[in-house]
Amino acid sequence: MTERIVVVGAAVLRDGCLLAARRSAPAELAGRWELPGGKVEPGEEAEEALVRELREELGVEAAAVRRVPGEFPLREPYVLRVWTARLLEGSPEPKPLQDHDELRWLPPDEVWDVEWLDQDVAAVLEVVRGV
């Protein structure tokens, strides 16, 4: 049995809005939207990975707030776990630095106006349900 690799996703919330990131790479994902995040490195806690990934991908300082219920399957051997997150006071505004070409703060009535990656839809549903 292949050991699962955890990918963390961040549901960054501010003023009731959810931050969405549009993929620019790889080509098969380009133009679709996701919750920012990435792989947990060996020896790293998931919450630490979340903070690191947000710093690398968006240039922000953030904190994990709470784990979103569920575990969302990706292609083998990856699995997505999502946390709500908040930007720390004094953090710069998010910028699309790696693998993204656009960011949007989506109010609740616009969350479904973007084309989410298939694997993020269930996670976004859980986030919206819990907000």
Automatic annotation (TrEMBL):
Keywords: DNA damage, DNA repair, DNA replication, Hydrolase, Magnesium, Metal-binding, Mutator protein. SUPFAM superfamilies: Nudix (SSF55811). GO terms for molecular function: 8-oxo-7,8-dihydrodeoxyguanosine triphosphate pyrophosphatase activity; 8-oxo-7,8-dihydroguanosine triphosphate pyrophosphatase activity; 8-oxo-dGDP phosphatase activity; 8-oxo-GDP phosphatase activity; metal ion binding. It catalyses: 8-oxo-dGTP + H2O = 8-oxo-dGMP + diphosphate + H(+). Its EC number is 3.6.1.55. It holds the Pfam family NUDIX. The keyword DNA-binding does not apply. Its cofactor is Mg(2+). Signal peptide: none annotated. One of its GO terms (biological process) is DNA repair. Residues 3-129 form the Nudix hydrolase domain. CDD domains: NUDIX_MutT_NudA_like. PROSITE patterns: NUDIX, NUDIX_BOX. InterPro entries: MutT-like, Nudix_hydrolase, NUDIX_hydrolase-like_dom_sf, NUDIX_hydrolase_CS, NUDIX_hydrolase_dom. Belongs to the Nudix hydrolase family. PANTHER family: 8-OXO-DGTP DIPHOSPHATASE (PTHR47707), NUDIX HYDROLASE FAMILY PROTEIN (PTHR47707:SF1). This is 8-oxo-dGTP diphosphatase.
